[in-house]
Amino acid sequence: RENNLRTLFAQKKLAFNGWASIGNSFLAELVADCGYDAVTVDLQHGLFSVEAAVPMLQAISATKAVPLVRCSENSLGEINKLLDAGAYGIICPLINTKEDAEKFVRACHYSPRGGRSYGPARGVLYGGKDYFEHANRTILTLAMIETRQGLAAAEEILSVPDLDGIFIGPSDLAIDMGLAPDAWNDDKVDQAFQHLIKLCQARGKYVGIFCGSVEMAERMKAYGVDMLVPGTDAQLLRAETTRRLNILRG
Ligand code: 3PY
Ligand code: MG
């Protein structure tokens, strides 16, 4: 099957990506059913491992949302398992150099474009019997830029041909600039966002960003990003729970 995120990108339509950080399949299904275009299973900061990610990917693939994974690190073994488990795109944290980006995209593509090993257990169930023929072009590869080093190397990172684009990590970037993790409104951080977004737009590359607030998400939408994450499942659960309790407690 085609990757709907690529279709939305070609149509220049903003995609909304949900964030599944709690290792439970019902919750992943519920998040996916909220109307997101994609849902990312977060193996970096989610407190669960690959075995728990599999039923989450099964649950997401019962909906229209594209199943994505943020891997825990830039590892061929883990990325191969997640693609075999049916992830249709990988967001890889902490890509700081062109070499990091090359290693990442090689793990996501079969030869001659990469070194992915063959064994797409659930990949064929989700992607279809012709999975092998189209996997190299359907699977989406997004490198996280979230350090000053990554920011400085962004042009080189984006020059890697098989990299589809970047996903900006505002908290780690703010921390690396000596600021608090929620300093996403700071001028220096915002300028970095704008710089990265413009670089991607000039090169026809995909750009997504995690948003810590609705206001930030609106600003990123105005900058023309391709994909927005409006918060994690846990953050949204907390926000609405505390909002209702505050109203009812008076
Ligand atoms: C960050 O803000 O650093 C992230 O990784 C968000 O996903
Ligand atoms: Mg991060």
Automatic annotation (TrEMBL):
<dbReference type="InterPro" id="IPR040442">
    <property type="entry name" value="Pyrv_kinase-like_dom_sf"/>
</dbReference>
<keyword id="KW-0456">Lyase</keyword>
<keyword id="KW-0479">Metal-binding</keyword>
<comment type="similarity">
    <text>Belongs to the HpcH/HpaI aldolase family.</text>
</comment>
<dbReference type="InterPro" id="IPR015813">
    <property type="entry name" value="Pyrv/PenolPyrv_kinase-like_dom"/>
</dbReference>
<dbReference type="GO" id="GO:0016829">
    <property type="term" value="F:lyase activity"/>
</dbReference>
<protein>
    <submittedName>
        <fullName>Aldolase/citrate lyase family protein</fullName>
    </submittedName>
</protein>
<feature type="domain" description="HpcH/HpaI aldolase/citrate lyase">
    <location>
        <begin position="21"/>
        <end position="237"/>
    </location>
</feature>
<dbReference type="InterPro" id="IPR050251">
    <property type="entry name" value="HpcH-HpaI_aldolase"/>
</dbReference>
<dbReference type="InterPro" id="IPR005000">
    <property type="entry name" value="Aldolase/citrate-lyase_domain"/>
</dbReference>
<dbReference type="Pfam" id="PF03328">
    <property type="entry name" value="HpcH_HpaI"/>
</dbReference>
